[in-house]
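Throughout our pipeline, every protein is held as a single compact record rather than as scattered files. Such a record has a labelled line for the sequence and another for the backbone structure tokens. This encoding replaces a full spatial description with a residue-level series of whole-number codes. For reference, a complete record is included directly beneath this paragraph.
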Amino acid sequence: IRVAPELIHNQNFKILCETILEKIKDAISQILNPQSQTPNPENQEQTFIILDSINAVKSGKTLSPPGSPSNIIKTLNMLHNLRIQHSPKPTTLIIAHANKQRAIAGPLTLQHMVDIVLFFNIEKDGSRTISTLKNRFAETNTKTTTNL
């Protein structure tokens, strides 16, 4: 596993610098399903995976460029089908690019395959807003503003 040496990592926090889908899958599987792990039902920690950015991921088995519909679908399917031995299904945060019109850059495939789409914006006055474009579980006409 190639871990970014300039960034902090420990037993509970790992950063992987990789854009090839199959290598990402192997690394996640190796980290989350270690060979020596003994099942302990009382120690079922929730796993959180962050992928930044899905637009940069490419399958080594296709000629399609990163961010193409086929690569996005393969990446989302891989993340959706991850299985961790003796643990709950991981929560996954997928970061994607937005265009100047404040829409998800590239194909709408990504928007259709996820549960929630949030936009993080920096407004002209310096405030930050979070807008919900899609939420499979609640209303989408919400906007939260914070000043940092």
